[in-house]
Amino acid sequence: MVPDFVSLIIFLLALGGMIFVHELGHFIAARWAGIEVEEFGLGLPSYKLATLFKWQGTEFTIHALLLGGFIRPKGENDPNVPGGTCLCQPVEATGRFIRRSVDEFADRHRGVLLPDRL
């Protein structure tokens, strides 16, 4: 019985770690694209159990249903928030992210891609 319980705990910790890393990827991409993130939550957004800390305007929280995770970008559900993500269509948001990615990549690697001396 004990090995089954230990296996379950190890599985839940591994799953929680994968969910955290996955959501961290969304968080980093949003911040890199210049989108403010209001909340980084572990667990499905239901009843908030605790606020762990607040960092650069982002509230890090734990929710009751620990079956996933989420980030809440600024203006996600409110079209009245200036600069919020609700106003732009998904295609526009993706295009904005790709344009910024390509521009920054080109700026960083200009000396390699287009050498000063040919």
List its traits.
alpha+beta; 2 strands; 3 helices; extended; 118 residues
Describe this structure in words.
The protein is of the alpha+beta class. The chain is about 45% helix and about 30% strand. The chain has helices at about 1-30, 90-110, 110-115, and strands at about 35-55, 60-75. Strands 1-2 form a two-stranded antiparallel ribbon. The longest helix is centred in the N-terminal third of the chain and has 31 residues, at about 1-30. It is extended and about 55 Å long.
Average pLDDT level: 76
Q: Low-confidence runs (pLDDT<50, min 5 residues)?
A: none
Helix tally equals 3
Helix percentage range: 40-55%
Q: What is the 3D shape?
A: extended
Class derived from helix and strand content: alpha+beta
Strand content: 25-35%
Strand order of the largest sheet: 1-2
Largest sheet: 2 strands, antiparallel
Cα-to-Cα separation, first versus last residue: 70 Å
The whole-angstrom Rg is: 19 Å
SSE arrangement, N to C: HEEHH
DSSP summary, beta strand count: 2
Helix and strand arrangement:
Layout: H1 2-32, E1 37-55, E2 58-73, H2 90-108, H3 110-113
Antiparallel strand pairs: 1-2
In short:
This protein is an alpha+beta fold. It is 46% helix and 30% strand.
